[in-house]
Amino acid sequence: MAIYPESDTDRRVARAALLDVVTRVFARCGMNNSDAGLLAETLVFSDMRGVHSHGVLRVPDYVGKLTGEGVDPAGRPRVVSRRGGALRVDGGNSMGQIGGTFAMDAAIDAARETGIAFAALGNSNHCGAMDWYTMRAARAGMIGLAGTNAIPTMAPLGGTDRIVGINPLSAALPGDGPPFVLDFSFGATAHGKIRVHAQKGAPIPEGWAQDAEGNPTTDAEVALSGLIQPIGGHKGVALGMMVGMLSSFLSDAGYGIESGTMTQGAFPGRDGQFFIAIDIAAFVDPAEFRRRVDEAAAQVRGSTRRAGVDRLLVPGELEADIEAEHTRAGILLSAATLDGIATAATELGTDTAALFADGAQA
């Protein structure tokens, strides 16, 4: 994950206050209270873990999608076909978090019967951070995997056309201690992370992005209209294509520019995702599996460090540390993010005073 630059204008906000305001904003968009609360919770979940690119930064974008850009605030996901552990889910053109949570929960339920279940979700939209879904499976004592397509922001190696999405993949494996959780795209960064740097007027790290002609850049504003660099060169492009195809072709969702472009935006109902649940008990003793997950993590933490390195981290550990800090002190958000929420809320007639109260604590 990215460690974001801090700014003197950043502000700490209580989790409960943030969740309440964002829930009311989405309810004003025509969502029922349950769906509005779920959508808000997924964004606050990401901010709590320090993944601000997929947090409440997205509120103005989502308000636009729900009120004028074709996403159905009342859309209902449903299973349209099932054969054993293979499920096809129609998201009902709901926000991706609504259809995605439904699909992962359906996969978890099916895996209890079949051992492994794969839910292909179509007629969906932007679904937020993928670890929201895989950690649901881990909490159910299962292995979770999930992937999604994304609006193309990468070019093939040597090219300059944005035709490949960074198409993130997440996996979560339960232990007796913290779960092993990875969630990353096959680009060097996510578009939302560049947006956070642009909000703060900060340069992006070298290796994240290129300008529109394919030249490396550290200028966040230039990067927003340029290209995200793939991880591992051609390997990142290939892996992004694979996750995009798995997310799209099994649910008849849009692939690549079929789902939208950076100039036209996302096309409503054309996103696709996949969700996999694996019942550990179908293979080995779950207690032994959890012990081995903890043991693998302990091997990393206890291994030899290079000079100047204080700590070796396991995937998901840094996010868990940030979540603990945000639970104690409040979520640290940029002024631009808070202003974006306030503007959207005001336009919808929702009060945001709780977000700007002095001394906010979680």
List the helices and strands and how they pair.
Layout: E1 11-13, H1 15-28, H2 33-48, H3 59-67, E2 78-83, E3 86-90, H4 96-114, E4 116-124, H5 131-139, E5 142-148, E6 169-173, E7 180-184, H6 191-200, E8 209-210, E9 216-217, H7 220-224, E10 227-228, H8 234-248, E11 260-261, E12 265-266, E13 271-279, H9 286-301, H10 317-329, E14 331-333, H11 335-347
Parallel strand pairs: 3-4
Antiparallel strand pairs: 1-14, 2-3, 4-13, 5-6, 5-13, 6-7, 8-9, 8-10, 11-12
CATH superfamily of the largest domain: Malate/L-lactate/L-sulpholactate dehydrogenase, NADPH binding domain
The overall number of domains is 2
Over all CA atoms, what is the radius of gyration? 20 Å
CATH class of the largest domain: Alpha Beta
Helix content: 25-40%
In terms of DSSP E residues, the strand content is 15-25%
Determine the oligomeric state from the structure.
single chain
**Main sheet attributes: strand count, strand direction, barrel closure:** 7 strands, mixed
Listing every helix as H and every strand as E from the N terminus to the C terminus, the arrangement reads EHHHEEHEHEEEHEEHEHEEEHHEH
**Backbone structural class:** alpha+beta
CATH architecture of the largest domain: 2-Layer Sandwich
Cα distance spanning the termini: 23 Å
Low-pLDDT runs of 5+ residues are none
Q: Got a strand count?
A: 14
CATH topology of the largest domain: Ribosomal Protein S8, Chain: A, domain 1
Globally, the shape reads globular
